Amino acid sequence: MLPPEAVFEATLLDVTQPDQPPVVLGRQRRQPAGQPPYALWIPYPSAGFVPKGRYEVRTTVTLEGRLLLASDRRYPVPQDAAYRHVDVQMQRLLPLAATVEASVPLLLTHWRLVEMAGEALSRPADGVTVPHLVFQADEPRVAGSGGCNRFLADYEWQPQSGHLRMGQLVSNISLCLQSSGLETQYFEALLAVRGFRQVGTQLLLRGAEGEQLLRFEAVETPPS
């Protein structure tokens, strides 16, 4: 049974551009959430759907800003308007030390790098690719960008202990003079990660001695 103060939220996202935060096309909230299952409509601008675009529905249940349940994988939305019905399953999150303060899921969230080695990164201009990562849900892989080159890597994690480690990064090779130093430092820091913790909408990645290496913020693009 969910607490009476719980909040259910369903969001329709445009995820066509993998290197940019997902764009919110519509969002519905039920407060109080009541008990599942939930049935609702998400209003959205029909012009937001374009041919070859990719769209998903994601859902959460929170209590006082802390995550209780979240959709467990990607739930794509069909292009044909006559078939835009999506059934979504949610998974209950256990109150573990690494995630008990989380307000967004670790998996599938677009995590933008905001601090590295204690130094805050300057806020990027709109449309500029910045260092980020996304943990996939259907397989233990993480994808992202260093600001110039995209990368893929396997990851292993143990939510109970907060352990997180990434395998060898595989990336394309492009010459980017302005971001090459930052990108190299970012990739090296990712390989040194041994643990994680979520606080609200932030993700903290730590080294072998518990030191904070990287800090990320969950981001999405609001509707225009």
Secondary structure elements and their pairing?
Blueprint: E1 7-14, E2 23-30, E3 55-63, E4 66-71, E5 90-92, E6 101-102, E7 111-116, E8 119-120, E9 132-135, E10 141-145, E11 150-158, E12 163-166, E13 170-171, H1 180-192, E14 195-200, E15 202-206, E16 212-218
Parallel strand pairs: 6-14
Antiparallel strand pairs: 1-2, 1-3, 3-4, 4-5, 7-8, 7-9, 7-16, 9-10, 10-11, 11-12, 11-13, 14-15, 15-16
Give a concise summary.
The chain is mainly beta.
Description:
This protein is globular. It starts with 6 loop residues before the first strand and ends in a 6-residue tail after the last strand. The mean pLDDT is 91. It has one helix at 180-192, and strands at 7-14, 23-30, 55-63, 66-71, 90-92, 101-102, 111-116, 119-120, 132-135, 141-145, 150-158, 163-166, 170-171, 195-200, 202-206, 212-218. The chain is built from one helix and 16 strands. The relative contact order is 0.15. It has two domains: 6-92; 110-218, Lipocalin (Beta Barrel), CATH 2.40.128. Helices cover 6% and strands 38% of the residues.
